[in-house]
Amino acid sequence: MNFKLLSADTLKAYVKDYKVTLKAYVKDHKVISAILFVGLGLTMLRFTLGIAGVSNLDDNTPWGFWMSFDLLCGVALSAGGCAVAAAYHVFGIRHFGPQVRAALATAFLGYFFEVVALQYEVGQPWRLVYPLFWSPGTRSALFLVGLCVFLYLIVLFIELLPALFEYLGMRTRRTAAVHWSVHLAVAGAVIAIIHQSALGSLYLIAQPKVHPLWYSDFMPVLFLISSIFAGLCMVIIEGILAHKYLKKYMDEQHIKNADKVVLSCGNAVFLLMISYLFIRIVNLIADDNIQYLTTGYGMWFLVEIIGFVALPVFLLFIGTREKRIRLVKISAIITVLGVMLNRFNVSIIAFNYNLPPDERYSPSWMEIFISVFLVTLLLLAYRLMCAKMPILKEHDDYTG
Amino acid sequence: MHRRIFLSLLSVAGLAALLDAGDGQAASTPPSDKYPDAFGVLHDSARCIGCRKCEAGCRARHADLLPEPDKPFDDLSVLEKKRRTDYRCYTVVNKYTVKGRETPVFRKIQCNHCLEPACVSACFVKALTKTEQGPVVYNPGLCVGCRYCMVACPFYIPAYDYGGVLNPLVYKCDMCAPFIAKGELPACVESCPKEALNFGKRNDLLRLARERMRTHPARYVPHIYGEKEAGGTSWLYIAPTAHTALGQQELGASPLPQRSAGIMEAACMTAGIAPVLLGGAYLVRRRRDEIAASEREAAVKEAVDNAAAETAAKLKTAAEEAAKDKETAIAREVKKAREETLGEIQAQTAAAGDSGGNASEAKTEEDAR
Ligand code: SF4
Ligand code: SF4
Ligand code: SF4
Predict the structure, then answer these.
(1) How far apart are alpha carbons A241 and A233 in whole angstroms?
(2) A116/A113 Cα distance (integer angstroms)
(3) From the CB of residue B157, how many other CB atoms can be counted at a distance below 10 Å?
(4) How far apart are the C-alpha atoms of B124 and B139, rounded to whole Å?
(5) Half-sphere exposure of A42 toward its Cβ, with a 13 Å CA cutoff?
(6) Residues near B167 by Cβ (< 8 Å), separated by ≥ 6?
(7) Cut 0.90: pTM above it
(8) Which of A275, A376, B87, B276 sits at 20 to 30 Å (Cα–Cα) from A295?
(9) How much helix, strand and coil, in percent to the nearest 5, is found in chain A?
(10) Cα angle vertex A209, ends B78, B79, to 5°?
(11) Are A269 and A232 contacting, i.e. CB atoms less than 8 angstroms apart?
(12) CA dist., res. A163 & res. A158, Å (int)
């Protein structure tokens, strides 16, 4: 195995050819290039004009689209990584095997780009180490969230080391790293459980500002459960996308197991969603919130609960019963959209519900575009990883 | 079975969170008496004339941080629009026209210096602290700019300098903490021409407020806003109209930090319990796999042994049968040949006179066998 990462020669070649390469790339990938170009521009704006230069955030709504999309949605959808790793390593569900690395890799990139997104979101990103190492505010839910992001990123990185060592051809180190798989899967699952519920507890302290239909003392539990099924649905969706665009990087085993994975994910999602739906309905009754159902917020609440929770539960029931893979896949997409809708509802739509409309927040196109830019970077990084490292296939030297 | 372990695990994690949430709700403790001698300020809307002198005084004292406003402080036209605190002013006075009243009512807005401040417990870097004397103060050297304090504050007080690039900070009233420490008055209290602001120990202020309500019952609604709201605040308000008409939201008496107070404990519990459960699940699973594997192995071995024995037996019988078959076949053939030969010989003997060569031929044939 030769060291292919960045030898002096290839570096030189890159530097020499980069103008040609760049031109060719731009020609072949017009949309991506445009996104990257505008995204870089907005990044410059953010760091020269401040947050105000690119966002509609204000004193009443200090957390907006970035928080909802990058952090709340992003982390919820990344939960698949640890769920799959735990399913395989801890619970021994064998056919998840070929999926483990793909799920871990997306989770890692998801968290990594979450940290990148934080650089845009917080006012003084260079101080982000303060809460961890200098002056931890341990009573803060956000501290817990930050701590978990930090720890989980490390765990995910170590969990991916075998793939990296295979890529670099370090056989002994790879063996040593594989040895720790189970421990890491356990650690990852524990951190993820804490992390997901910590995200739910972020809004507990803001109780007076969150509409009662969405505020719940059970938010930590609700966030945790919904993140697990959202993460599993993401495994299904990533499967669909990867089969479409990254098939050339897959091996037989990966392709052969795909339907089995869809079905077992579907089964787990079905059960989890039932308990989620149950808690939300109990919550609605126990907190005496039925009175709000006839208001505009009530309608919107019903759209979320019926259209994006009850409907996929029903579809999954049929899909998993009759082994209709397509139906399960469709429900997975609805479910993920539903979880995202829920996060947006809690953090933007039902947040500050008692402020007059003209004091409410709506995101600027630049905020949304920066998130699109980061997602694009994430996808590119994922493709690069799949192309270079044994993520969607087993390494030739280690099969069998 | 795997699924069951999985679910029970989830419910444990959930349980920890539930215990925690339950804690937060059950605790409707009276306002914190942690600092019984803490100072506060009473704002009396029945006395306030909306002159904005307090705003001017505040800005004058914080001139190092707060810029000159766009319109001068004696321009009262700004009162026509609802305002809030921002990164250029710590305090604003708003005008409220209330139904059934000829004259408008004014209310001063600034940090309420909560007894159990949501902002303080929300800050993940301890940049905000509640001091013994009452003020909730901010350390600009620590602030990361996450703005969670702004999310948490139920009164919409902290503001952020969104346009800042190198050192954007949170801005909020500090109750003139350094001056209070020196025994001086907060600037706004000092500049009020109408004694609409009173500074003192919070307990004394509560007494003062009740006294005013008692002597002038017609001038006040019988509610001291801030006595209990969100666990109580250092700043207190009395007014001639319902506080909700002055933009003061109704808030429960339980301090907001309590709602998320137990999360750290819950997290530690989860960190303690979940690995044990997961590890246990793993061990159970591995043991079962091992048993299954060894059983499988034994079964395979037995099968192989059986098969070998069977094959041997089969082979043996087959060989025996083959041998028997062969013998009988030979016997049969021999018999047949003999009979044939005999028949021929008999025939030949019968026709002995015809030819002798035939007999000799038959003899040779028999010899060959
Ligand atoms: S009013 Fe808001 S900013 Fe002031 S102490 Fe209370 S929570 Fe903190
Ligand atoms: S913005 Fe600053 S003061 Fe407010 S919570 Fe974040 S770090 Fe603390
Ligand atoms: S200075 Fe006194 S009277 Fe004037 S607006 Fe302020 S509180 Fe009211």
Answers:
(1) 12
(2) 5
(3) 26
(4) 13
(5) 23
(6) A124, B140
(7) no
(8) A275
(9) 80, 0, 20
(10) 10
(11) yes
(12) 10
Cα atoms in the Cβ-side hemisphere of radius 13 Å centred on B354: 7
Query: Could you tell me if B274 lies within 8 Å of chain A, comparing CB atoms?
Result: yes
With vertex at residue A203, the alpha carbon angle to CA A197 and CA A209, rounded to the nearest 5 degrees, is 160
Q: Which atom of ligand 1 is nearest to the CA of B113?
A: 5
Question: Strand B92-96 to strand B197-201: parallel, antiparallel, or no bridges (unpaired)?
Answer: unpaired
A132, A150 contact by CB (below 8 A)? yes
- B125 in Cβ contact with B250 (< 8 Å): no
What's at B83, amino acid-wise? R
Say how far apart CA B330 and CA A13 lie, in whole Å: 87
Give distance in angstroms: CA of B58 to centre of ligand 3: 11
**What is the layout of strands, in order, in the sheet containing B235-238?**
B197-201, B39-44, B235-238
B17 touches A at CB < 8 Å: yes
Closest alpha carbon to B92 in B12, B171, B4:
B171
Determine the Cα angle at A275 with ends A271 and A280, to 5°: 145
Residue B304 burial class via C-beta count within 10 angstroms: exposed 0-12, middle 13-18, buried 19 and up? exposed
In the reported structure, the alpha carbon of residue A396 is separated from the centroid of ligand 1 by a whole-number distance in angstroms of 60
Q: How many Å apart are CA B121 and CA B151, to the nearest integer? A: 12
Residue nearest to atom 5 of ligand 1 (CA): B113
Please give the average pLDDT of every successive group of 10 residues along chain A, which has 400 residues.
52 64 72 84 87 88 91 86 80 75 83 88 86 83 90 86 78 73 83 90 92 90 91 85 75 73 85 92 87 88 92 88 84 92 93 88 90 89 79 62
Q: Exposed/middle/buried for A26, CB within 10 Å: 0-12, 13-18, 19+?
A: middle
CA distance B343 to B267: 108
Measure the CA–CA gap between A279 and A1, rounded to whole angstroms.
Answer: 54
Question: SS3 for A239?
Answer: helix
> Are B22 and A217 in contact (CB < 8 Å)?
yes
pLDDT for residue A202: 92
Residue of B237, B226, B229 lying closest to B255 (CA atoms): B229
The answer to whether A140 contacts B148, with C-beta atoms less than 8 Å apart, is yes
Question: B76 Cβ partners below 8 Å, 6+ apart?
Answer: B50, B51, B52
Tokens encoding B67: 């810029």
List pLDDT tens digits, range B52-65.
899 999 999 998 88
